[in-house]
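Exercise 7b. Backbone tokens:
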């Protein structure tokens, strides 16, 4: 029906313009062809714009969630999509499909994933030319995808990455009459500055770009009060703080599920396999951490198990994992020096550009009491492993000093105490000596590991006290937080 109306409209315009040209020709009018051409282009453009802005009964219940990154590694945008769908919105989720998102996203009928491709730009030329062609191709791809879909009431996009998606999403919002929302996770130019330096032309251009296009959004969300204040004072942007909150999937893991995960991981990673060579009881199924009595189907944690230390990362410049590796070397030295400490299995999850670099450093270590494992977990296994760990470590160093690590939010959702490296606004999340510890260097981290694990596996020590504190102070979950802060923006007239 819509296509028929569009064709009828174009046919009517064609007949009208033809009649005008015929009249001008017969009357000997001196109207020039450039004027006629400009008139035709203007009329066609207005018709096209009218078609782009066409709304129907479902428009107000459609939203687009956009991330110029991997959907599977964008948990906050997945949570946004789920929250929209729970309130009856049809969600078009646009992003790279490099890894599988959480099954809840895949199962939700109101969420349609529209994958886009990460373009590379021109190969073989200067780096600047490669970057420029990459941006141009990405603009074309985004315009093609966003202009083809049905008109959306809102376009919500993550920044960073925001080049070129902020400008494209704003333009599409103007053309289609949608409301444009930016969810500020950080500033893109500060991340670029980590590798290029503050004075690099690309960094300065990216800063201007964010400062110019950022204020054009109808609404803005951000992840900390510190960022909210900075956006207001230095950018002229009024934002709503939407703290990251753990989704309901992040909770302490029952022993049976812990054992099942450990068994699956043991098939691939020897660090999870039981080490005892004299274990011949066929009625007991063992991993290095747990044992399952097959006769009674009961699971227990092994008294002599190592401590499970967990960290997750995107392997980028804002996380220096040499700090953790040095701390683990020092922890090894404590044990060799006679300290009564448990062995460690350190699991570092995630993908990213610097992983190969750190894998070489890990392979060069000579550790007897510390084993390091770097798996990539399925989306549904990650919260199970978090809920099974004994201690979390966060090495996120905010490039702007204004964002908070979501990984710590998820760890706290699982009542997992955390050691986190210090930066400006970390106090908004980690309370030193209350729900975890804050360190500044590898030596301080090593001392904290020694202190927290000195009474392991007993729950009577500091580690157990932190876990009890997290259990008793469980705050707001994502759904309630979203309903309180985002839903009013979406439903406002």
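Sequence design result:
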């Amino acid at each position: 029906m819509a296509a028929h109306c569009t064709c009828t409209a174009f046919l009517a315009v064609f007949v009208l313009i033809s009649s005008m040209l015929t009249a001008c020709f017969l009357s000997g009018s001196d109207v020039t062809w450039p004027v006629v051409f400009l008139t035709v282009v203007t009329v066609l453009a207005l018709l096209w714009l009218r078609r782009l802005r066409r709304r129907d009964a479902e428009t107000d219940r459609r939203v687009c969630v956009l991330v110029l990154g991997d959907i599977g590694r964008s948990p906050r945008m997945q949570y946004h999509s789920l929250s929209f769908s729970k309130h009856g919105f049809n969600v078009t989720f646009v992003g790279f499909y490099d890894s599988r998102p959480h099954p809840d996203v895949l199962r939700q009928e109101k969420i349609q994933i529209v994958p886009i491709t990460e373009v590379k730009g021109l190969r073989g030329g200067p780096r600047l030319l490669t970057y420029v062609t990459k941006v141009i191709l990405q603009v074309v791809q985004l315009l093609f995808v966003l202009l083809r879909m049905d008109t959306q009431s809102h376009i919500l996009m993550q920044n960073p990455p925001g080049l070129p998606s902020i400008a494209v999403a704003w333009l599409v919002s103007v053309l289609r009459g949608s409301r444009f929302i930016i969810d500020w996770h950080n500033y893109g130019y500060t991340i670029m500055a980590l590798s290029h330096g503050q004075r690099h032309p690309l960094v300065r251009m990216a800063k201007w770009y964010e400062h110019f296009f950022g204020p054009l959004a109808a609404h803005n969300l951000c992840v900390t009060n510190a960022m909210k204040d900075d956006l207001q004072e230095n950018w002229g942007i009024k934002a709503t703080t939407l703290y990251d909150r753990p989704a309901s999937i992040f909770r302490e893991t029952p022993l049976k599920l812990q054992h099942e995960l450990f068994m699956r991981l043991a098939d691939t990673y020897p660090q999870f396999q039981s080490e005892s060579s004299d274990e011949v009881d066929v009625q007991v199924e063992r991993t290095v951490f747990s044992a399952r009595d097959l006769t009674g189907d009961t699971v227990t944690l092994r008294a002599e198990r190592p401590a499970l230390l967990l960290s997750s990362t995107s392997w980028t410049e804002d996380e220096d994992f040499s700090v953790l590796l040095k701390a683990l070397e020092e922890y090894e030295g404590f044990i060799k020096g006679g300290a009564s400490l448990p062995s460690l299995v350190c699991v570092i999850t995630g993908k990213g550009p610097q992983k190969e670099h750190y894998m070489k450093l890990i392979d060069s270590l000579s550790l007897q009491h510390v084993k390091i494992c770097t798996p990539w977990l399925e989306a549904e296994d990650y919260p199970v492993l978090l809920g099974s760990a004994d201690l979390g470590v966060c090495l996120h160093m905010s490039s702007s000093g204004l964002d908070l690590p979501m990984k710590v939010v998820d760890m706290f959702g699982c009542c997992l105490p955390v050691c986190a490296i210090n930066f400006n606004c970390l106090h908004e999340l980690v309370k030193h000596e209350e729900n975890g510890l804050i360190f500044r260097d590898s030596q301080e981290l090593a001392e904290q590991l020694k202190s927290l694990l000195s009474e392991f596996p007993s729950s009577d020590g500091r580690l157990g006290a932190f876990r009890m504190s997290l259990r008793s102070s469980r705050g707001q979950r994502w759904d309630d937080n979203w309903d309180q802060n985002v839903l009013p923006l979406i439903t406002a007239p």
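Instructor comment: The chain is about 45% helix and 15% strand. Residues 1-13 have pLDDT under 50 and may be disordered.
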